[in-house]
Amino acid sequence: MLERYRRLFEGIFIAVGSRIPIGPNTLTLLALVPAAAALLSALWGHAMYVGPLIAASSMLDALDGAVARARGSASRRGAFLDSAVDRYVDFLSFMALGIMGFLWLAIAGLLGAYMTSYARARAEGLGVEVRGVGVLERAERQTAIIAIAVIYALTGSSEVLLWGLMALAAAANATAVHRIIYIFRILR
Fold first, then answer.
1. What is the pTM of this model?
2. pLDDT > 90: what percent of the chain?
3. Catalytic residue among 61, 64, 86, 90
C-alpha cells in the first residue's frame, strides 16, 4: 500500500543519506537501539516514548538502504543484515505494544508479520516476486504500530490498544495468507 510512495520518499532519503557520515550497515544495526528502548519504555510504564522510539527505528531502517544506494555500496550482504535486523525490530516493536496490554494479540500480530516476511523470502528463493502483495507490508505494519502506540499514549485507553492490536493482528495474518495463496497459485 505504501509501496506506491516509495519513489517519492526514496529520493528524499537518498538526498539525506548522501550526507550522512555513517555507513549503511551501522545504520541498520543502530535501528535496534530505539526499538529496544521502546520495549524498555513499555516495561517501565512510559508508554509515551514507545511510538516515537519505534518511529526513530523506522527512520534509521529507511536511511540505511538510501545511504547504500547514494554511495553505490548496496550489497547482498547488507540486504541480508537489513532483513535480519528487521525481524528483531519487529519483535521488539510488537512486544512493546504487548507489554502495554493484550500480549496474546501482539504475539498473533508478530506471527502474521513473520509469516509475511517468510513468504516473501521463500518466494524470492523460488523466483517469485511478491512485493506489493497484501495490505500490510512492513512499512504499513510499522506505521500502524507507531499510530497505535501514540494514540494509546495520548488517550490511555485500553480499548484503543485492544482494537488497534486486533486490527493489526488480523491484517498482518491476512497479508501472510494472501501471499501464501498468491505464491501457491504462481507455482502451479
1. 0.88
2. 73
3. 86
